[in-house]
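Let's sit down with a protein and look at its sequence and fold side by side. Which protein we use is up to you, so please pick one and set it down. Label the sequence line and the structure token line clearly, so we can match residues to local backbone shapes. Go ahead whenever you are ready, and we will take it from there:

***
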Amino acid sequence: MKLAKPIYESLPYIYFFMSGYLLSLDNSLVLIFSAALFYTAGCVTLVTRSSHRRLDKQIESIKHAIPELIYEYKPYVFGAIAIFTLMLTKNAYIQFAAFTLGVVALRILLFRHNNRCRPKALF
């Protein structure tokens, strides 16, 4: 089955939208689990696409400080923690910390997108 390009390209964001929509309906366990599945599907789709579309291919022999799987999903985990913390707490200090964690996750994603969409420069 082949999807039209606009639908195919926006599919992970549709997953994220569905996750947010399900979380906004109610706090039942079934809806939270469904939202987590949609969020995970969006994350896996974006990470897989990013690894296939990279212009700055990594050398396989380079050792990272943390495993690559953890490295790739770190901003998505930060974002999920930030969203759930903002939803579940009323404390202003904890909400500020969660908001800051969300901004860090967004920063990591933007820097990765910027670095991966260009070929490696000589300087």
